[in-house]
Amino acid sequence: MKSIFCISGFGADHRVFSRLDLGTHQVHYLDWLIPIPQEPIGQYAQRMSAAIKTENPVILGLSFGGMMAIEIAKLISAEKIILISSIKTRQELPGWMKWAGKLRLDEFLPLKSFPLIEPLENRNLGIETEEERQMVSAYRKKVDPRYTSWAVHEILHWKNTWIPENLVHIHGGKDHIFPIRKIRADFVIEDGGHFMIMNRAEKINPILSKILDEPAGMAAQGSWSK
Questions:
Q1: Which of 77, 220, 74, 48 is nearest to 151 (CA)?
Q2: Closest Cα partner for 195 from 153, 136, 151, 144?
Q3: Domain definitions of the chain by residue range
Q4: 59-77, pLDDT tens digit by residue?
Q5: CA-CA distances (angstroms) from residue 164 to 30, 129, 152, 156, 226?
Q6: Which CATH architecture has domain 3-221?
Q7: pTM of the model
């Protein structure tokens, strides 16, 4: 039995993992913290990792949570790092996000969501059902603006170039947030969007089962069929 620590996406919580089948493994959820003003992502990762009390855990990160999983893996030893709908390095960041970071647009433009553009945001997220729409709407309403400002800045300015050897990346072929053309994934859900953890869970679960059943260290050996 493994200890799996799950990190949700931008401003989300444990509910986004509700359709994953992680078998009999011990599953824990790392909550997002309110950032200290101008807190570096490495320092934030240090604070978040304090909740991990198990040696060599599996860290599963969704979207921005995947980026945070890599930052935590720089600080503690992990058996495996699993990314879903995320990126591994700055090279996989979409070009428009890189330019937004260079132009410091996050410092000048309002970061709150507006009802008029929420349907477009939902489309880009790959939301397909009313349940998913309501979940995302609830996240928008409850997210702390201090977290929003910090997280957007850290995403746009992420400098990471390190890829852990024990990392496995699952991505959607129709992801509009992190387009597949920029991604080198180990497993691709061809019809999966950014929110595929909810609406393509039946395709993700067999992959997760395969990953978790493999002995530690197998990820770097290319032993899994895609």
A1: 48
A2: 136
A3: 3-221
A4: 999 999 999 999 999 999 9
A5: 20, 35, 24, 21, 19
A6: 3-Layer(aba) Sandwich (3.40)
A7: 0.88
